[in-house]
Design a protein that fits this description.
With 153 residues, this protein is α/β, with parallel strands linked by helices. The chain has one domain: Rossmann fold (3-Layer(aba) Sandwich), CATH 3.40.50.1010. Helices cover 46% and strands 12% of the residues. The chain has 7 helices and 5 strands; from the N terminus they run βααβααβααβαβ. Strands 3-2-1-4-5 form a 5-stranded parallel beta sheet. β4, α7 and β5 form a beta-alpha-beta unit. The chain starts with 5 loop residues before the first strand and ends in a 9-residue tail after the last strand.
Amino acid sequence: MIENIRVYVDTSVFGGVFDSEFDLASQKFFDQVKQDEFKLVTSAVVYEEILPAPEEVRQFFDEMLQFAEIIEVTREALDLRDAYMKENIVSPKYLDDALHVALATVSGCQIILSWNFKHIVHYHKIPLYNAINTLKGYNHIKIFSPLEVIKYD
């Protein structure tokens, strides 16, 4: 069974529940979280990014908190984020995207889920994040969109 897999979910997946392009896979993922298929992990950074979102997204996030582990930003995560930034994996404008990957990594998540195909779920960036993880003594992390991890009937 999958329930031991810790999956870090960024802001885009919560918002994806209300986006016609991403709603079906996003909702199915969260339904599977409720069925103990995955261990939902999110962060204080996601919480901050959700604050200016539409009311329905904030309300859904609040409802999912009962199923989630919320991780705080630590010095360790900031140091790993800075290592990603030093290697120019993302530009300084997208510092929080690198922080999402760092938070997931240092908290021992096996997977990151995101709809951010530009800075997180990208074939060129994933090996770069994992190269830095290896150099810094962390495990590799798998990065997917919800479409790639949900169970299909």
